[in-house]
Amino acid sequence: MTDRPRPRPRRRWPWLLVVAVLATVIATVAVRQAGDPAPTTTSGASRVVLDENFDGGTLDGSRWNTCHWWDKEGCTIASNNELEWYRPEQVAVADGALRLTAAPNRFDASDGNSYDFTSGMVTTGPTPDDDDAKVAITYGTVEARFRAPAGRGLWPAIWLLPASKESRPEIDLLEMIGQDPSELILHYHPKDRDADSPSRRVRVSNPDLAEDWHTVGVIWTPGKLVYTLDGKPIWTVTGQQVPSEPMYLVMNLAVGGAYPGPPDASTAFPATFEIDYVRMSTGA
C-alpha cells in the first residue's frame, strides 16, 4: 500500500500538453487492442500453481497422472470410439519437452477390449484412489506451448475438466484433426447438456500447428473465457454457463474415433505430441 498523494493546487494545462497526453493515451489503447488481451481481474491475488518446463528426465508424479481417474491399468474414452489405449510407457520427458507418443501396438486392455494402438496422455486430475485433483484452479490462466503431429486419424488435445469427476463443464483449449494441422478447434461444453456448446475454428498457417511450436491458453474470470493463440485473444465465451468450480488439465494424443476417423497408410507412426511447457495460475 502506498501513501495517498497530497492535494496539489489546480493549474491550467497548456493546450499543447493536453494534446500530447491525449495522443499518448490513444496510442496506448491501440497497442493493447493489437497485442495481448487487456488485463482481467479476479477475486484474490494471482498465484502460480503449476510451472512445468519438463527439464528433468522423468514425469513428476506429484503433479501428473498418466490416465483418467476411472482406470488404473490404462484407459480410453469409449464413448468417442477411439482406437488407442493410453499407457504410461507412451509418456516420456526428453530434450526439455513432454512427449506423448502413439504407435500401432495391439493391446488387450483391462476393459475387456483389444486396441490397435497405444498412446500417451497426462492429467493433473484425480486418480482411482484419490478424489482430490493434484492441480486444479477456479478462475485464472492456463497456457501451454506445443507442437502437434500431423497425420490422418491423429487427435491431439489440451483441455480442462471438473475436479468433481464429472464430465462437464469442459474447456477445450486445443483440438486438432491430424489431416488438417492448419485448423485449431476450440470448444466449450457447459455443465447443462441441454445448453448450446459453442465452438470456434481458427486457421493457423506459416507455420501450422505441426510445422512449429505454438502456444494456446485461456484467461478464465467469472462469467468469461478468453481463448488465446500465441498470446493473442482469438475467441471469447461469456455468460452464466461459464464454470465457477475447480478444473484440472488434460493433455492427450488420441487415435481414431468418430471425430478424426481412423488412420490410414499415409499416417506416419510413431507419432508424437510435444509439450514444451505448461503454466497454470489462479487470480489475475
Radius of gyration, in Å, reads: 22 Å
Overall mean confidence score, pLDDT: 87
H-E order: HEEEEEEEEEEEEEEEEEE
Largest sheet entry: 8 strands, antiparallel
CATH architecture field = Sandwich
Helix share bin = under 10%
Q: Count of helical segments?
A: 1
**Total number of domains:** 1
Helix-strand layout with pairing:
Elements: H1 15-34, E1 47-52, E2 84-86, E3 91-94, E4 97-102, E5 107-108, E6 114-115, E7 117-119, E8 121-123, E9 140-147, E10 154-162, E11 170-175, E12 183-189, E13 199-203, E14 214-221, E15 224-229, E16 232-238, E17 247-255, E18 271-282
Outline of the structure:
With 284 residues, the chain is mainly β. The protein is 7% helix and 37% strand.
Descriptive notes:
The chain has a single domain (37-282), classed as Jelly Rolls. The protein is 7% helix and 37% strand. The chain contains one helix and 18 strands. The strands form four sheets. Strands 1, 3, 4, 9, 14, 15, 16 and 18 form an eight-stranded antiparallel β-sheet that branches. Strands 8-17-10-11-12-13 form a six-stranded antiparallel β-sheet, with no helix packed on it. A hairpin with a 5-residue loop joins strand 5 (107-108) and strand 6. The radius of gyration is 22 Å and the shape is globular. It starts with 14 loop residues before the first helix and ends with a strand. Residues 1-43 have low confidence and may be disordered.
